[in-house]
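Weekly modeling sync, notes
Attendees: S.R. (lead), two postdocs, one rotation student

Agenda item 3: backlog of single-chain predictions. S.R. asked that every request posted to the team notebook include the full sequence so nobody has to chase files. The rotation student volunteered to paste the first one in as an example of the format we agreed on. Action items at the bottom.

Example entry:
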Amino acid sequence: MGGGGGLVLWLTISPAFLFLVVVATLTLPALVESACGSNAVVFNFGDSNSDTGGLMAGLGYQIFPPEGRLFFHRSTGRLCDGRLILDFLCESLHMSYLSPYLESVGSDFRNGANFAIAGSTALPPDIPFSLHIQVNQFLRFKARSLELIAQGSKGLINEEGFHKALYAIDIGQNDLSAAFGANLPYDQVIERIPSVISEIKTAVKTLYSSGGKSFWIHNTGPLGCLPQKLSLPRKDSSSLDRYGCLVPFNNAAKEFNAQLNILCDELRSELNDATIVYTDIFTIKYDIIANHATYGFENPLMACCGYGGPPYNFNQNITCGNAACPVCPEGSKYVNWDGVHYAEAANAIVASKILTTEYSKPKVKFGFFCTA
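Predicted structure, as returned to the notebook:
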């Protein structure tokens, strides 16, 4: 996986921060009881938080440097300066990074596929690339794989591989963001949540009916701590919490997460032979914001790649990738990369905390689905 190549990029920063990032990165495999290696199969569904190039492949959307400037040293379609949380989780299993399902050239689907697309939502269900569409793409992927295996093709995931695979879902942030973006009153934003949760339920049950038994579901992060949201006009600071985050946005995320947690409990009861793991991404990310100095960060609410300067360095009209948009030096101590997505340094810490199992229910290792 080339983990050693990323270390040089952090040598310009403070020893304390270097230690935290190196430890978070290098100890990921150690936090998993046993690695799957070539046996691991993971299928991922979601939005830009876990999109490894699907938007670029699916729509021909051009994503240029400085995206990917760190670990990959090129744009890979990830909206990040380097690796995503999903990438670190794959590293922990010593498996390859997930190829986007829609990438027609150079993909390797022996360890699964990534159906996540930046901008995706749960609602409405029938437009590209909603969660419903992503699940339908998976069903096509499975049917075609098994069809080709029956014809003698090699190197594809077989029926057993699909059965033993991990099905990961991380979606909902864009649904909340769209509701707030439509200037809906807070109560109406909350009223939309059950419909989003229902789509996630349908997705899990569809995948279960197709043979999936292992599910890893992330809740949504602190929406009100994103520079994109914080830069929106407001009358005063009364809506900010003690760490500078927007309370209404975070409260909506908390309500979404509470309902998602209840859904996971219900699914465990209903799908007796399935393992449904609910992982609290909100708490992990909010802790990084609240205690940023402990983790070696100095700018928890500012975008590294953005325009406008303090306090948020975000301008909706001049976003990361725009020729007029400056970017912070490599090794800068930012939590946020572009106003919406987290920087690789923060993603490494999030992943390391996920792998402790302390933020998951039930508290099982990420590699629980692996076979010896």
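Discussion: group reviewed the output briefly. Residues 1-34 have pLDDT under 50 and may be disordered.
Action items: rotation student to repeat for the remaining queue; S.R. to check formatting next week.
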